[in-house]
Design a protein that fits this description.
The complex is a heterodimer.
Chain A: E1 5-6, E2 9-12, E3 18-23, E4 33-37, E5 44-47, E6 61-66, E7 69-74, E8 83-90, E9 97-99, E10 103-107
Parallel strand pairs in A: 2-10
Antiparallel strand pairs in A: 1-3, 3-7, 4-5, 4-8, 6-7, 8-9, 8-10
Chain B: E1 3-7, E2 11-12, E3 18-25, E4 34-40, E5 47-53, E6 58-60, E7 68-73, E8 78-83, E9 92-102, E10 106-112, E11 116-120
Parallel strand pairs in B: 2-11
Antiparallel strand pairs in B: 1-3, 3-8, 4-5, 4-9, 5-6, 7-8, 9-10, 9-11
Classes of the chains: A mainly beta, B mainly beta.
């Protein structure tokens, strides 16, 4: 399979917890990585591997995976977390990179 | 610090070939990793175009494969994208990025260029 499916929009109240999901058959074989993109900026990785967080990324960002679904959780969302979030993995053959369609997160 | 910088014409005519170069500093392309191109049409999501391994082997998005060529110039520490027969649908911000498979099974694009807007118009 060569598709990753994300909800187009998600909203969360300031300080609350939100989960952004990514579904695809290839996620049974590969972990997803997650990227945050703010307007006019290049994407930045926030989670990779099973649940790794690059240095400089706040620990309110966490990742998990089960079956064909990868999840990005923000615990205590802040106003600066409002952005587009993309999951990335490989297709089932491992030959291609595939991007999810992106989720626009609104912090209310 | 690894840095990537895209360069090339910002305007390309329909049916012509789009050419971009990504200059890499702070890391030798010869040393490893994949080097890829990703694009983002205005207001839309990210799309992987293709990648080249430091050894020169390439992989491309099947939807673009017939029009794409990615090459590497290790002497200049840069890699390039050519996309032929462009149409308005190819108008996008084009990013270059370094990536590898963390743990063997998690693609990680750890360094990105700032992006270059290419408009296809006559």
């Amino acid at each position: 399979s060569s598709e990753l499916t994300q909800d187009p929009t998600v909203s969360v109240a300031l300080g609350q917890t939100v989960r952004i999901t990514c579904q695809g058959d290839s996620l049974r074989r590969f972990y997803a990585s997650w990227y945050q993109q703010k307007p006019g900026r290049a994407p930045v990785v926030v989670i990779y591997g099973k649940k790794n967080r690059p240095s400089g990324i706040p620990d309110r960002f966490s990742g998990s995976s089960s079956g064909n679904t990868a999840s990005l959780t923000i615990t205590g969302a802040q106003a600066e977390d409002e952005a587009d979030y993309y999951c990335v993995s490989r297709d089932s053959s491992g030959n291609q990179l595939i991007f999810g369609g992106g989720t626009k997160l609104t912090v209310l | 610090q690894v840095q990537l910088q895209e360069s090339g014409p910002g305007l390309v005519k329909p049916s012509e070939t789009l050419s971009l170069t990504c200059a890499v500093s702070g890391y030798s392309i010869n040393s490893g990793y994949f080097w890829g191109w990703i694009r983002q049409p205005p207001g839309k999501g990210l799309e992987w175009i293709g990648s080249i391994y430091h050894s020169g082997s390439t992989s491309y998005n099947p939807s673009l494969k017939t029009r794409v060529t990615i090459s590497v110039d290790t002497s200049k520490n840069q890699f390039s994208l050519k996309l032929s027969s462009v149409t308005a649908a190819d108008t996008a911000v084009y990013y270059c990025a370094r990536h590898h498979d963390y743990g063997g099974n998690s693609p990680l694009l750890d360094y990105w260029g700032q992006g270059a807007l290419v408009t296809v118009s006559s």
